[in-house]
Specification:
globular; 24% strand; alpha+beta
Length: 231
């Protein structure tokens, strides 16, 4: 992990195309980690500019089951969300996921984060989240690396949007193929069908926005285009 503190508005380093019209699939960052330990140290978090901090605050609020239409608008219509259980490939499906969380969980608490990457088009942070289930009286604590690939058209604005949101909770990345990947996409495709809230319907116009086939890598390891990065 780099010990150099980047400027609050991000370094000049870029990772993705600079054409905002390209679909979210083109903005996926890939990496493996030496240990998979993403426990955050908030005291070492990189400082962010006001617009970047506002983006991060909205994302954390979504994790804490405080979805609003304005917060979901942090994503572009063609965004992708990818974690252990979900592959949502437009903002309509993304809205379905955020607004469905309170139906599954009694509580969700962000216990801390550490920004470890602040580049021009990429913010990454270690995040500790506690999820308390509704039916089973149990709380699960998850440490993950969250990667926010930024929309080129809004990077310099006061309302920065996200093209690709990845939540990675172990050392390997996602291969995006096989039964697990099929289930993740099926889940996202179908949950939204049962969401009848007006807030989710607000994003129905984004259904299938500028989509490409899901990229597949064969592996979540280095051989699957996921280099080792100690983030």
């Amino acid at each position: 992990m780099s010990s150099t503190i980047p400027p609050p508005n991000g370094t000049s380093k870029t990772h993705f195309p600079q054409d905002s019209s390209l679909p979210g699939e083109r903005f996926e960052v890939r990496q493996t980690h030496p240990t998979g330990d993403y426990t955050p140290n908030p005291s070492k978090s990189f400082p962010l500019s006001a617009p970047r901090q506002a983006l991060l605050d909205d994302i954390i609020a979504l994790y804490e089951m405080k979805p609003t239409v304005a917060r979901v608008r942090r994503y572009t219509p063609d965004c992708v969300y990818n974690d252990q259980f979900v592959y949502a490939d437009d903002r309509y499906k993304m809205a379905g996921q955020w607004f469905a969380l309170p139906k599954l969980f009694k509580a969700a608490e962000s216990r801390g984060y550490q920004v470890v990457t602040n580049d021009r088009d990429l913010i990454q942070f270690r995040h500790e989240e506690a999820w308390t289930f509704k039916i089973i009286p149990k709380t699960a604590v998850v440490n993950a690396l969250v990667s926010l690939s930024l929309d080129p058209a809004t990077i310099d604005s006061d309302f920065i949007r996200v093209k690709y949101h990845k939540d990675q909770a172990n050392d390997k990345d996602y291969s995006n193929e096989g039964l697990g990947a099929t289930f993740k996409k099926w889940q996202a495709d179908n949950v939204v069908k049962y969401m009848d809230s007006l807030e989710v319907k607000e994003f129905e116009v984004d259904k299938g926005a500028r989509k490409e086939p899901r990229p597949m890598y064969g592996s979540g390891g280095r051989e699957g285009d996921a280099p080792v990065k100690d983030l």
